[in-house]
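tool=predict chain=A
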Amino acid sequence: MSRLLISLSKIRCNLDRDHRFEGLSWQLFQGEQWAVVGANGSGKTTFSSLLGGQLAIASGQRNYAPGFDPVQDIAYVSFELQKQLCDRDQRLDMSELSEAAFDPGTTARQAILQGRPAPADLGAQCQRYGLESLLETGIRYLSSGEMRKVLLLRGLLQQPQLLILDDPLEGLDRIARPELAQMLQDAMDGGQQVLLLTRRKQDLPRAISHILLLQDMELVASGCRARVMASREWAGLLPPLPRLPDALPPPAAGHPVFRPDPAIAPIVGQQLTASYQGKTVLRNVDLVLEQGEHIAIRGPNGCGKSTLLNLVCGENHKAYGQQLKLYGRQRGSGETLWQVKALFGVVSNQVQAKYVRGWNALEVVVSGFYHSVGLYRDTGASEKKAALAWLGALKLEDIAGQGFATLSYGQQRLVLLARAMVAHPPLLVLDEACTGLDDYHRDSLLQLLDFIAANSATQFLYVSHLADDIPTCINRTLEFIPHPDGLYRLVDVSANPPRP
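tool=predict ok
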Protein backbone atom coordinates (compact mmCIF):
# COMPACT_ATOMS: atom_id res chain seq x y z
CA MET A 1 0.00 0.00 0.00
CA SER A 2 1.20 3.52 -0.81
CA ARG A 3 2.47 5.71 1.99
CA LEU A 4 -0.05 8.20 3.39
CA LEU A 5 1.58 11.66 3.23
CA ILE A 6 -1.15 14.04 4.41
CA SER A 7 -4.45 13.37 6.15
CA LEU A 8 -7.22 15.89 6.87
CA SER A 9 -10.06 14.71 9.10
CA LYS A 10 -13.21 16.76 9.83
CA ILE A 11 -11.31 20.04 9.50
CA ARG A 12 -13.00 23.29 10.43
CA CYS A 13 -11.19 26.59 9.90
CA ASN A 14 -12.34 30.16 9.45
CA LEU A 15 -10.96 32.89 7.21
CA ASP A 16 -13.77 35.33 7.96
CA ARG A 17 -17.50 35.16 8.58
CA ASP A 18 -18.23 34.31 4.92
CA HIS A 19 -15.31 32.00 4.13
CA ARG A 20 -14.68 28.78 6.05
CA PHE A 21 -14.02 25.09 5.63
CA GLU A 22 -16.44 22.93 7.62
CA GLY A 23 -16.02 19.16 8.13
CA LEU A 24 -13.33 18.79 5.43
CA SER A 25 -11.76 15.32 5.13
CA TRP A 26 -9.20 14.25 2.52
CA GLN A 27 -6.09 12.09 2.12
CA LEU A 28 -3.01 12.29 -0.08
CA PHE A 29 -1.01 9.12 -0.78
CA GLN A 30 2.47 8.97 -2.22
CA GLY A 31 2.47 8.71 -6.01
CA GLU A 32 -0.93 10.32 -6.56
CA GLN A 33 -1.11 13.32 -8.90
CA TRP A 34 -3.97 15.58 -7.80
CA ALA A 35 -5.71 18.57 -9.36
CA VAL A 36 -7.84 20.86 -7.21
CA VAL A 37 -10.42 22.40 -9.55
CA GLY A 38 -12.72 25.32 -8.78
CA ALA A 39 -13.75 28.84 -9.73
CA ASN A 40 -12.31 32.06 -8.29
CA GLY A 41 -13.19 32.16 -4.60
CA SER A 42 -13.90 28.43 -4.35
CA GLY A 43 -11.07 27.92 -1.83
CA LYS A 44 -8.23 26.41 -3.90
CA THR A 45 -5.43 28.62 -2.57
CA THR A 46 -6.84 28.39 0.96
CA PHE A 47 -6.83 24.60 0.64
CA SER A 48 -3.13 24.64 -0.32
CA SER A 49 -2.39 26.84 2.73
CA LEU A 50 -4.25 24.31 4.87
CA LEU A 51 -2.08 21.47 3.51
CA GLY A 52 1.12 23.40 4.15
CA GLY A 53 0.24 24.24 7.73
CA GLN A 54 0.06 28.02 7.17
CA LEU A 55 -3.66 28.05 7.97
CA ALA A 56 -4.69 27.41 11.56
CA ILE A 57 -7.52 24.95 12.19
CA ALA A 58 -10.30 25.41 14.74
CA SER A 59 -11.06 21.71 15.05
CA GLY A 60 -10.30 18.39 13.38
CA GLN A 61 -7.02 16.65 12.65
CA ARG A 62 -4.23 17.53 10.19
CA ASN A 63 -1.56 14.82 10.15
CA TYR A 64 1.64 14.30 8.18
CA ALA A 65 3.58 11.08 7.58
CA PRO A 66 6.57 10.47 9.87
CA GLY A 67 9.54 12.37 8.44
CA PHE A 68 7.34 14.61 6.27
CA ASP A 69 7.98 18.27 7.12
CA PRO A 70 5.54 20.61 5.29
CA VAL A 71 8.04 23.48 5.49
CA GLN A 72 10.83 21.52 3.82
CA ASP A 73 8.92 18.95 1.77
CA ILE A 74 6.31 21.18 0.07
CA ALA A 75 7.32 23.71 -2.59
CA TYR A 76 5.00 26.29 -4.13
CA VAL A 77 4.63 28.03 -7.46
CA SER A 78 2.00 30.74 -7.17
CA PHE A 79 1.07 34.36 -7.81
CA GLU A 80 1.20 34.88 -4.05
CA LEU A 81 4.84 33.75 -3.87
CA GLN A 82 5.66 35.95 -6.86
CA LYS A 83 4.04 38.92 -5.11
CA GLN A 84 5.88 38.23 -1.84
CA LEU A 85 9.28 38.10 -3.54
CA CYS A 86 8.70 41.26 -5.57
CA ASP A 87 7.23 43.15 -2.59
CA ARG A 88 10.31 42.28 -0.54
CA ASP A 89 12.58 43.59 -3.29
CA GLN A 90 10.55 46.77 -3.54
CA ARG A 91 10.90 47.40 0.21
CA LEU A 92 14.65 46.78 0.11
CA ASP A 93 15.27 48.84 -3.04
CA MET A 94 18.55 50.74 -2.57
CA SER A 95 18.50 52.67 -5.86
CA GLU A 96 18.66 56.04 -4.10
CA LEU A 97 21.88 55.00 -2.36
CA SER A 98 23.44 53.41 -5.44
CA GLU A 99 26.02 55.35 -7.43
CA ALA A 100 24.29 54.18 -10.61
CA ALA A 101 20.83 54.98 -9.17
CA PHE A 102 19.85 51.40 -9.91
CA ASP A 103 19.43 48.42 -7.63
CA PRO A 104 18.72 45.14 -9.45
CA GLY A 105 17.55 43.54 -6.20
CA THR A 106 17.20 39.78 -6.14
CA THR A 107 18.37 38.30 -9.43
CA ALA A 108 16.68 35.40 -11.17
CA ARG A 109 19.67 33.21 -10.26
CA GLN A 110 19.31 34.06 -6.56
CA ALA A 111 15.56 33.47 -6.61
CA ILE A 112 16.05 30.07 -8.23
CA LEU A 113 18.83 28.83 -5.94
CA GLN A 114 17.53 30.27 -2.62
CA GLY A 115 21.08 30.31 -1.22
CA ARG A 116 21.82 26.70 -2.21
CA PRO A 117 24.85 25.74 -4.32
CA ALA A 118 24.12 25.69 -8.03
CA PRO A 119 23.59 22.17 -9.39
CA ALA A 120 25.90 21.01 -12.15
CA ASP A 121 23.09 21.05 -14.70
CA LEU A 122 21.77 24.55 -13.84
CA GLY A 123 22.87 25.91 -17.22
CA ALA A 124 21.08 23.15 -19.09
CA GLN A 125 17.97 23.58 -16.96
CA CYS A 126 17.90 27.34 -17.57
CA GLN A 127 18.43 26.85 -21.29
CA ARG A 128 15.50 24.44 -21.37
CA TYR A 129 13.29 27.05 -19.70
CA GLY A 130 14.61 29.93 -21.83
CA LEU A 131 16.13 31.62 -18.77
CA GLU A 132 19.86 31.46 -19.53
CA SER A 133 20.04 35.13 -20.59
CA LEU A 134 17.98 36.33 -17.59
CA LEU A 135 19.90 34.83 -14.68
CA GLU A 136 21.49 38.15 -13.64
CA THR A 137 18.30 40.18 -14.21
CA GLY A 138 16.42 41.43 -11.15
CA ILE A 139 13.11 39.65 -10.65
CA ARG A 140 11.27 43.01 -10.57
CA TYR A 141 12.26 43.47 -14.21
CA LEU A 142 11.01 40.10 -15.46
CA SER A 143 7.72 39.70 -17.28
CA SER A 144 4.95 37.70 -15.60
CA GLY A 145 5.70 34.70 -17.80
CA GLU A 146 9.45 34.85 -17.16
CA MET A 147 8.84 35.06 -13.42
CA ARG A 148 6.54 32.05 -13.60
CA LYS A 149 9.33 30.02 -15.22
CA VAL A 150 11.78 31.16 -12.53
CA LEU A 151 9.42 30.00 -9.79
CA LEU A 152 8.79 26.65 -11.45
CA LEU A 153 12.50 25.93 -11.79
CA ARG A 154 13.00 27.13 -8.21
CA GLY A 155 10.36 24.67 -7.00
CA LEU A 156 11.73 21.71 -8.96
CA LEU A 157 15.32 22.31 -7.81
CA GLN A 158 14.09 22.21 -4.21
CA GLN A 159 13.28 18.51 -4.87
CA PRO A 160 10.16 18.55 -2.68
CA GLN A 161 8.04 15.54 -1.87
CA LEU A 162 5.04 17.62 -3.03
CA LEU A 163 5.04 20.51 -5.52
CA ILE A 164 1.93 22.72 -5.30
CA LEU A 165 1.26 24.64 -8.52
CA ASP A 166 -1.30 27.45 -8.46
CA ASP A 167 -2.43 27.97 -12.10
CA PRO A 168 1.16 27.63 -13.42
CA LEU A 169 0.26 28.32 -17.07
CA GLU A 170 -1.23 31.74 -16.35
CA GLY A 171 0.73 34.67 -17.76
CA LEU A 172 2.51 32.58 -20.38
CA ASP A 173 2.41 33.35 -24.09
CA ARG A 174 1.01 30.93 -26.66
CA ILE A 175 4.48 29.48 -27.32
CA ALA A 176 5.54 29.14 -23.70
CA ARG A 177 2.24 27.63 -22.49
CA PRO A 178 2.63 24.28 -24.32
CA GLU A 179 6.36 24.25 -23.51
CA LEU A 180 5.74 24.66 -19.80
CA ALA A 181 2.81 22.23 -19.88
CA GLN A 182 5.18 19.63 -21.34
CA MET A 183 7.77 20.38 -18.65
CA LEU A 184 5.14 19.77 -15.98
CA GLN A 185 4.13 16.56 -17.72
CA ASP A 186 7.77 15.43 -17.86
CA ALA A 187 8.27 16.26 -14.17
CA MET A 188 5.24 14.18 -13.18
CA ASP A 189 6.25 11.33 -15.47
CA GLY A 190 9.67 11.48 -13.79
CA GLY A 191 8.16 10.93 -10.36
CA GLN A 192 7.63 14.47 -9.05
CA GLN A 193 4.38 14.45 -7.07
CA VAL A 194 2.17 17.44 -7.87
CA LEU A 195 -0.92 19.13 -6.50
CA LEU A 196 -2.24 21.38 -9.28
CA LEU A 197 -4.68 24.20 -8.51
CA THR A 198 -6.62 25.22 -11.59
CA ARG A 199 -9.79 27.10 -12.50
CA ARG A 200 -10.13 25.67 -16.03
CA LYS A 201 -10.94 22.09 -16.93
CA GLN A 202 -8.86 22.28 -20.12
CA ASP A 203 -5.63 22.89 -18.17
CA LEU A 204 -5.51 19.39 -16.66
CA PRO A 205 -2.30 17.52 -17.67
CA ARG A 206 -2.56 13.93 -18.82
CA ALA A 207 -0.64 12.69 -15.77
CA ILE A 208 -3.27 13.93 -13.28
CA SER A 209 -4.71 10.81 -11.64
CA HIS A 210 -7.09 12.33 -9.06
CA ILE A 211 -9.36 15.37 -8.87
CA LEU A 212 -10.73 17.33 -5.92
CA LEU A 213 -13.59 19.66 -6.81
CA LEU A 214 -14.21 22.74 -4.64
CA GLN A 215 -17.18 25.07 -4.73
CA ASP A 216 -17.76 27.93 -2.27
CA MET A 217 -15.25 26.53 0.26
CA GLU A 218 -16.88 23.09 0.15
CA LEU A 219 -15.47 19.81 -1.13
CA VAL A 220 -18.17 18.59 -3.52
CA ALA A 221 -16.34 15.71 -5.25
CA SER A 222 -13.07 13.86 -4.76
CA GLY A 223 -11.48 10.73 -6.14
CA CYS A 224 -9.92 9.18 -9.22
CA ARG A 225 -9.98 11.34 -12.33
CA ALA A 226 -12.37 9.26 -14.43
CA ARG A 227 -14.96 8.93 -11.66
CA VAL A 228 -14.98 12.65 -10.79
CA MET A 229 -15.15 13.70 -14.44
CA ALA A 230 -18.17 11.43 -14.91
CA SER A 231 -19.95 12.92 -11.89
CA ARG A 232 -22.93 15.26 -11.77
CA GLU A 233 -20.83 17.77 -9.80
CA TRP A 234 -18.24 17.99 -12.60
CA ALA A 235 -20.95 18.53 -15.20
CA GLY A 236 -22.31 21.34 -13.03
CA LEU A 237 -19.11 23.38 -13.38
CA LEU A 238 -20.61 25.36 -16.29
CA PRO A 239 -20.50 29.03 -15.23
CA PRO A 240 -23.63 31.18 -14.93
CA LEU A 241 -24.25 33.84 -17.54
CA PRO A 242 -22.53 37.17 -16.81
CA ARG A 243 -24.74 40.09 -15.77
CA LEU A 244 -24.27 43.36 -17.62
CA PRO A 245 -25.21 46.81 -16.25
CA ASP A 246 -28.21 48.69 -17.57
CA ALA A 247 -26.04 51.78 -18.13
CA LEU A 248 -22.66 53.21 -17.19
CA PRO A 249 -22.62 55.53 -14.16
CA PRO A 250 -22.32 59.28 -14.89
CA PRO A 251 -19.18 61.27 -13.97
CA ALA A 252 -18.81 62.41 -10.36
CA ALA A 253 -19.68 65.99 -9.52
CA GLY A 254 -16.59 68.15 -9.40
CA HIS A 255 -14.57 65.82 -11.64
CA PRO A 256 -14.83 67.07 -15.22
CA VAL A 257 -14.35 64.49 -17.96
CA PHE A 258 -11.52 65.05 -20.45
CA ARG A 259 -12.96 65.93 -23.87
CA PRO A 260 -10.32 65.30 -26.55
CA ASP A 261 -10.14 67.09 -29.87
CA PRO A 262 -11.56 64.55 -32.36
CA ALA A 263 -8.99 65.65 -34.95
CA ILE A 264 -5.99 64.73 -32.78
CA ALA A 265 -4.65 61.18 -32.35
CA PRO A 266 -4.65 60.15 -28.66
CA ILE A 267 -1.19 58.53 -28.83
CA VAL A 268 1.66 59.10 -31.25
CA GLY A 269 4.91 57.40 -30.23
CA GLN A 270 7.85 57.13 -32.60
CA GLN A 271 11.13 55.26 -32.14
CA LEU A 272 10.37 54.59 -28.48
CA THR A 273 13.34 53.06 -26.67
CA ALA A 274 13.91 51.78 -23.14
CA SER A 275 16.76 50.01 -21.37
CA TYR A 276 17.52 48.81 -17.86
CA GLN A 277 20.98 48.28 -16.36
CA GLY A 278 22.56 48.48 -19.80
CA LYS A 279 20.10 46.01 -21.35
CA THR A 280 17.86 47.36 -24.11
CA VAL A 281 14.26 46.21 -23.82
CA LEU A 282 12.66 48.35 -26.53
CA ARG A 283 14.35 49.89 -29.55
CA ASN A 284 12.73 52.19 -32.10
CA VAL A 285 9.17 51.00 -31.52
CA ASP A 286 6.32 53.02 -33.04
CA LEU A 287 2.83 53.12 -31.48
CA VAL A 288 -0.01 55.22 -32.86
CA LEU A 289 -3.58 55.10 -31.54
CA GLU A 290 -6.04 56.98 -33.73
CA GLN A 291 -9.47 58.23 -32.68
CA GLY A 292 -12.01 55.39 -32.61
CA GLU A 293 -9.45 52.61 -32.32
CA HIS A 294 -9.18 49.89 -29.71
CA ILE A 295 -5.79 48.22 -30.02
CA ALA A 296 -4.68 44.75 -28.93
CA ILE A 297 -0.93 44.21 -28.45
CA ARG A 298 0.44 40.68 -28.60
CA GLY A 299 3.88 39.17 -28.26
CA PRO A 300 5.95 36.61 -26.33
CA ASN A 301 6.97 36.95 -22.70
CA GLY A 302 9.74 39.49 -22.27
CA CYS A 303 9.31 41.24 -25.63
CA GLY A 304 8.52 44.60 -24.00
CA LYS A 305 4.72 44.82 -24.00
CA SER A 306 4.41 46.00 -20.40
CA THR A 307 7.41 48.30 -20.76
CA LEU A 308 5.74 49.96 -23.75
CA LEU A 309 2.50 50.47 -21.83
CA ASN A 310 4.36 51.90 -18.84
CA LEU A 311 6.19 54.35 -21.08
CA VAL A 312 2.95 55.58 -22.57
CA CYS A 313 0.85 55.90 -19.42
CA GLY A 314 3.39 57.60 -17.15
CA GLU A 315 4.58 54.66 -15.07
CA ASN A 316 8.08 54.82 -16.58
CA HIS A 317 10.21 58.00 -16.40
CA LYS A 318 12.14 56.97 -19.53
CA ALA A 319 9.33 58.47 -21.62
CA TYR A 320 10.81 61.93 -21.12
CA GLY A 321 12.90 63.15 -24.04
CA GLN A 322 11.33 60.67 -26.47
CA GLN A 323 9.05 61.27 -29.42
CA LEU A 324 5.81 60.63 -27.58
CA LYS A 325 2.70 62.79 -27.82
CA LEU A 326 -0.54 62.33 -25.87
CA TYR A 327 -3.46 64.15 -27.51
CA GLY A 328 -1.00 66.33 -29.40
CA ARG A 329 1.12 67.32 -26.39
CA GLN A 330 4.76 66.29 -26.28
CA ARG A 331 5.68 64.35 -23.13
CA GLY A 332 7.98 66.40 -20.94
CA SER A 333 6.75 69.76 -22.20
CA GLY A 334 5.65 71.02 -18.81
CA GLU A 335 2.83 68.68 -17.83
CA THR A 336 2.83 67.02 -14.42
CA LEU A 337 2.92 63.27 -13.90
CA TRP A 338 -0.60 63.46 -12.46
CA GLN A 339 -1.87 65.20 -15.60
CA VAL A 340 -0.53 62.26 -17.60
CA LYS A 341 -1.99 59.67 -15.23
CA ALA A 342 -5.39 61.40 -15.40
CA LEU A 343 -5.65 60.32 -19.05
CA PHE A 344 -5.43 56.63 -18.16
CA GLY A 345 -7.27 53.96 -16.26
CA VAL A 346 -5.12 50.85 -15.68
CA VAL A 347 -5.99 47.22 -14.95
CA SER A 348 -2.99 44.92 -14.54
CA ASN A 349 -1.41 42.27 -12.34
CA GLN A 350 1.06 44.91 -11.12
CA VAL A 351 -1.70 47.24 -9.88
CA GLN A 352 -3.56 44.34 -8.28
CA ALA A 353 -0.43 43.17 -6.46
CA LYS A 354 0.15 46.62 -4.92
CA TYR A 355 -3.08 46.53 -2.91
CA VAL A 356 -2.30 44.86 0.40
CA ARG A 357 -4.47 44.63 3.48
CA GLY A 358 -5.87 47.90 4.77
CA TRP A 359 -8.39 49.04 2.15
CA ASN A 360 -11.87 47.84 1.37
CA ALA A 361 -13.38 47.52 -2.10
CA LEU A 362 -15.05 50.94 -2.01
CA GLU A 363 -11.79 52.66 -1.01
CA VAL A 364 -9.94 50.92 -3.83
CA VAL A 365 -12.46 52.26 -6.36
CA VAL A 366 -12.36 55.79 -4.88
CA SER A 367 -8.54 55.77 -5.14
CA GLY A 368 -9.02 55.77 -8.91
CA PHE A 369 -9.88 59.47 -8.71
CA TYR A 370 -6.41 60.16 -7.29
CA HIS A 371 -4.41 57.54 -9.28
CA SER A 372 -2.98 56.27 -6.02
CA VAL A 373 -2.68 52.85 -4.41
CA GLY A 374 -5.05 53.28 -1.48
CA LEU A 375 -6.44 56.48 0.03
CA TYR A 376 -4.35 59.04 1.86
CA ARG A 377 -6.83 61.92 2.00
CA ASP A 378 -10.42 62.57 2.93
CA THR A 379 -12.85 61.98 0.11
CA GLY A 380 -16.08 63.73 -0.67
CA ALA A 381 -19.59 62.37 -0.98
CA SER A 382 -19.56 62.69 -4.77
CA GLU A 383 -16.51 60.40 -5.09
CA LYS A 384 -18.03 57.76 -2.81
CA LYS A 385 -21.36 57.99 -4.63
CA ALA A 386 -19.66 57.49 -8.00
CA ALA A 387 -17.58 54.57 -6.66
CA LEU A 388 -20.70 52.87 -5.27
CA ALA A 389 -22.43 53.43 -8.61
CA TRP A 390 -19.60 51.66 -10.45
CA LEU A 391 -19.62 48.77 -7.98
CA GLY A 392 -23.37 48.54 -8.51
CA ALA A 393 -22.98 48.59 -12.29
CA LEU A 394 -20.61 45.61 -12.00
CA LYS A 395 -23.01 43.82 -9.59
CA LEU A 396 -20.52 44.20 -6.72
CA GLU A 397 -22.41 46.54 -4.41
CA ASP A 398 -22.65 43.84 -1.72
CA ILE A 399 -18.86 43.73 -1.28
CA ALA A 400 -18.23 47.49 -1.00
CA GLY A 401 -17.25 47.25 2.67
CA GLN A 402 -15.23 44.03 2.40
CA GLY A 403 -11.45 44.11 2.57
CA PHE A 404 -9.94 44.02 -0.91
CA ALA A 405 -7.46 41.33 0.17
CA THR A 406 -10.31 39.03 1.27
CA LEU A 407 -12.07 39.11 -2.12
CA SER A 408 -11.66 36.36 -4.68
CA TYR A 409 -9.17 37.00 -7.47
CA GLY A 410 -11.98 37.53 -9.97
CA GLN A 411 -13.79 39.99 -7.71
CA GLN A 412 -10.56 41.92 -7.20
CA ARG A 413 -10.09 42.22 -10.97
CA LEU A 414 -13.61 43.58 -11.46
CA VAL A 415 -13.08 46.06 -8.59
CA LEU A 416 -9.94 47.25 -10.36
CA LEU A 417 -11.97 47.77 -13.54
CA ALA A 418 -14.33 49.99 -11.52
CA ARG A 419 -11.29 51.85 -10.11
CA ALA A 420 -9.91 52.36 -13.61
CA MET A 421 -13.21 53.69 -14.99
CA VAL A 422 -14.54 55.72 -12.06
CA ALA A 423 -13.03 58.96 -13.40
CA HIS A 424 -14.14 58.21 -16.99
CA PRO A 425 -10.62 58.24 -18.49
CA PRO A 426 -10.24 58.64 -22.24
CA LEU A 427 -7.77 55.72 -22.33
CA LEU A 428 -8.03 52.34 -20.60
CA VAL A 429 -4.89 50.17 -20.37
CA LEU A 430 -5.50 46.47 -19.75
CA ASP A 431 -2.36 44.36 -19.30
CA GLU A 432 -3.24 40.64 -19.25
CA ALA A 433 -6.58 41.54 -17.70
CA CYS A 434 -7.95 37.98 -17.85
CA THR A 435 -4.97 36.34 -16.15
CA GLY A 436 -6.08 34.32 -13.13
CA LEU A 437 -9.80 34.51 -13.89
CA ASP A 438 -12.15 31.55 -14.05
CA ASP A 439 -14.48 31.22 -17.03
CA TYR A 440 -17.31 33.17 -15.38
CA HIS A 441 -15.22 36.17 -14.37
CA ARG A 442 -13.35 36.09 -17.69
CA ASP A 443 -16.62 36.23 -19.65
CA SER A 444 -17.93 38.93 -17.30
CA LEU A 445 -14.84 41.09 -17.81
CA LEU A 446 -14.82 40.73 -21.60
CA GLN A 447 -18.51 41.52 -21.93
CA LEU A 448 -18.15 44.50 -19.60
CA LEU A 449 -15.31 45.83 -21.73
CA ASP A 450 -17.44 45.53 -24.86
CA PHE A 451 -20.25 47.33 -23.01
CA ILE A 452 -17.88 50.15 -21.97
CA ALA A 453 -16.56 50.47 -25.52
CA ALA A 454 -20.10 50.70 -26.91
CA ASN A 455 -21.36 53.16 -24.29
CA SER A 456 -18.47 55.55 -23.69
CA ALA A 457 -15.69 57.43 -25.47
CA THR A 458 -12.95 55.44 -23.69
CA GLN A 459 -10.44 53.74 -25.97
CA PHE A 460 -8.50 50.58 -25.11
CA LEU A 461 -4.87 49.49 -25.16
CA TYR A 462 -5.23 45.77 -24.52
CA VAL A 463 -2.42 43.25 -23.98
CA SER A 464 -3.12 39.52 -24.06
CA HIS A 465 -1.35 36.32 -25.07
CA LEU A 466 -4.55 34.46 -25.91
CA ALA A 467 -6.97 35.25 -28.74
CA ASP A 468 -9.88 33.94 -26.65
CA ASP A 469 -9.15 36.58 -23.98
CA ILE A 470 -9.64 39.58 -26.27
CA PRO A 471 -12.95 41.52 -26.33
CA THR A 472 -14.79 41.81 -29.64
CA CYS A 473 -14.52 45.62 -29.64
CA ILE A 474 -10.83 45.37 -30.56
CA ASN A 475 -10.47 46.68 -34.11
CA ARG A 476 -6.70 46.76 -34.57
CA THR A 477 -4.00 44.25 -33.57
CA LEU A 478 -0.28 44.88 -33.20
CA GLU A 479 2.26 42.13 -32.56
CA PHE A 480 5.87 42.11 -31.37
CA ILE A 481 7.86 39.87 -33.72
CA PRO A 482 11.57 39.01 -33.48
CA HIS A 483 14.03 41.42 -35.08
CA PRO A 484 17.44 40.35 -36.42
CA ASP A 485 19.13 42.50 -33.75
CA GLY A 486 17.74 40.19 -31.05
CA LEU A 487 14.94 42.47 -29.92
CA TYR A 488 11.41 42.87 -31.30
CA ARG A 489 9.60 45.17 -33.69
CA LEU A 490 5.92 46.04 -33.44
CA VAL A 491 3.93 45.35 -36.61
CA ASP A 492 0.28 45.69 -37.55
CA VAL A 493 -1.26 42.23 -38.03
CA SER A 494 -4.89 43.33 -38.11
CA ALA A 495 -7.12 40.99 -40.11
CA ASN A 496 -9.23 43.96 -41.17
CA PRO A 497 -8.51 47.68 -41.47
CA PRO A 498 -9.46 49.75 -38.40
CA ARG A 499 -13.12 50.68 -38.11
CA PRO A 500 -13.91 54.36 -37.62
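The CA atoms of residues 110 and 401 lie 40 Å apart. The chain has two domains: 4-235, 267-492.
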